[in-house]
Amino acid sequence: MVRNSKVLSKNEKMKKLIGAKNEDVEFSGSEADADDMEAIARSQAADRRQLHEIIEEEE
User: Fold this and answer.
1) I need a surface site. Which of 11, 15, 26, 41 has the fewest CB within 10 A?
2) Residue 53 domain-assigned?
3) What is the number of domains present in the chain?
4) pLDDT per position in the chain (59 positions), as tens?
């Protein structure tokens, strides 16, 4: 196996990170494992907390 010996510059690293953020990922409930389901639950809880904070700020 040949390793890529090129050291990426800061700009090249940022381009790779930005590209990774823009990838479309499709969630499949049938292929989800326990970690995926836990992540969904944490995400939903965080969304509820954030929504609660927004509602409190508006009142």
Assistant:
1) 26
2) yes
3) 1
4) 556 678 888 888 888 777 766 667 787 888 899 999 999 999 999 999 999 888 888 87
